[in-house]
Amino acid sequence: MNDPDAISEIEEVLAAAYHQAMAIDPRMRRFSRALADLGMPVPAEWATTDGEGTVEFTPISWKAFDRLVCLLEDIAGGRRVHVTVVQGGPTLFGPATPPGPMPAPAGSSIHLTVPR
């Protein structure tokens, strides 16, 4: 494969994928995590990007917009903010299943002593 046009096209695709993985995706994750940490009343995937340098926000309800404005006013006014809304966002692992009944731990027959 010595076609310069094909090689150039492959290089462009790889460069775009690299930029997406190394620059855009981490910024979007940081933004999503910051929204969740602040308790912003917006969906976890509120902001999306097309990979071309544009960030778009999905519509939110008037109630969510009002809560967002109130929270931003509190932050701007230096008032204490209590996060009461926990957003589900991207996690490293999927949601864990709640533990069921656990058996009692087995007793140990080993006793350690600490010399004095």
Category from helices, strands and their pairing: mainly alpha
| Strand arrangement across the biggest beta sheet | 1-2
What level of helicity do the residues show?
40-55%
Report the portion of residues in β strands. 5-15%
Distance between the termini: 76 Å
Low-confidence stretches: none
Total count of strands: 2
Biggest beta sheet summary: 2 strands, antiparallel
- What is the average of the pLDDT values? 78
Oligomer: single chain
The radius of gyration is 25 Å
Number of helices: 2
What's the shape? flat
Helices and strands, with pairings:
Elements: H1 4-38, E1 47-49, E2 55-57, H2 62-76
Antiparallel strand pairs: 1-2
Short description:
The protein is mainly alpha-helical and 116 residues long.
Report what the structure shows:
This protein is mostly helical. It contains two helices and two strands. The chain has helices at 4-38, 62-76; strands spanning 47-49, 55-57. It has a two-stranded antiparallel sheet. A hairpin with a 5-residue loop joins strand 1 (47-49) and strand 2 (55-57). The mean pLDDT is 78.
Which tags fit this structure?
116 residues; mainly alpha; two-stranded antiparallel ribbon; 2 helices; 43% helix
